Amino acid sequence: MSGLWARYNKLLEAQPLLTKALTSLTGFTAGDLLAQNFVEGGDKPYDVMRTIRLGSFGFLLHGTTGHYFYGFLDSKLPGTKPVTVATKVAIDQTIWNPIFGCMFFGYLNLMEGKSWETYTNKIKADLKTAVMGSWAVWVPAHTINFAFIPPSQRLLYINSIQIGYNVFLSFLGNKEVPEEEKKE
Questions:
Q1: Is residue 2 domain-resident?
Q2: Alpha carbon of residue 144 to chain centroid
Q3: What integer is the mean pLDDT of 65-94?
Q4: Of residues 92 and 165, more confidently modeled
Q5: Are residues 57 and 107 in contact, defined by beta-carbon separation less than 8 angstroms?
Q6: How many domains does the chain have?
Q7: Which of the listed residues 57, 110, 126, 128 has the most CB atoms within 10 Å of its CB?
Q8: What confidence tens digit (pLDDT) does each residue in 132-159 have?
C-alpha cells in the first residue's frame, strides 16, 4: 500500500492536473456504479452510458475545476486558523457549490442531447436539493479538509468522500423532472 501511495504522490507532483482528473474520474464512476447497482436497483437495466457520462464529468470538469478552484482558494486564504477554515467552507458552499451544481446538471443535459428548457427545468427542480444536500456532507468534510489535509491532497480527500456523495448526485442528476414542474 505504501508503494501505491508513493506512486500516487509522484504522479501528483509530476502531473497534478491529470492526477486530480483521474481521481475524479474514479470517484464519479464508482459513485454511479454504486447508485445504479445498489441504491436504485429496480427493474431498470444497468446503463453503461450513464456511468460514462458521470465518469467523464469527473475527469473533464470536476478534477480540473477542483484543481484550479481549491488552488485559488488556498492561495488567497492560506493557513488553517479556524476563521480561515470557516471562510473557505463558506465560500465553497455558498459560491462554488451552486456553480458546481449548474455545471453538473448542464454537463449531463448536454451529453444527453437535451434542450436548454430541460436544463433550466432541472435547475429549478433540483439545484436547491443538490445545494442543501451538499451542506450535510461537505460542511463537515471541508472543515476537516481545510484544517488538516495538505493542499496537494485536497482533491484526493474530496474524491474519497465524493464516492458516497456521488451516489446522491448520480441519483439526482438522472431523476426525471415531474411534468408539473416542467411547466412552471
A1: no
A2: 17
A3: 96
A4: 92
A5: yes
A6: 1
A7: 57
A8: 988 999 999 999 999 999 998 998 899 8
- The SS3 call for residue 118 is helix
Instruction: Using pLDDT thresholds of 50, 70 and 90, give the confidence band for residue 170.
Output: confident
- What HEC string does 24-92 produce? HHHHHHHHHHHHHHHHHCCCCCCCHHHHHHHHHHHHHHHHHHHHHHHHHHHHHCCCCCHHHHHHHHHHH
Cβ proximity of 20 and 153 under 8 Å: no
Whether residue 54 has pLDDT greater than 70: yes
- Give me the residue label for grid cell 446538471: 105
Confidence of residue 103 (pLDDT cuts 50, 70, 90): very high
Residue 107 in domain: yes
Determine the residue type at 83. Answer: V
Q: How far is CA 45 from CA 34, 37, 41, 78, 135, in A?
A: 14, 9, 9, 47, 31
Decide if 11 is inside a domain.
no
Question: Considering the domain boundaries, does residue 166 fall inside one?
Answer: yes
Range of the domain at 84: 17-182
Q: Span 157-163, mean pLDDT?
A: 87
87 vs 37: CA distance, rounded Å: 38
Question: What predicted TM-score, i.e. pTM, was given to this entire model?
Answer: 0.86
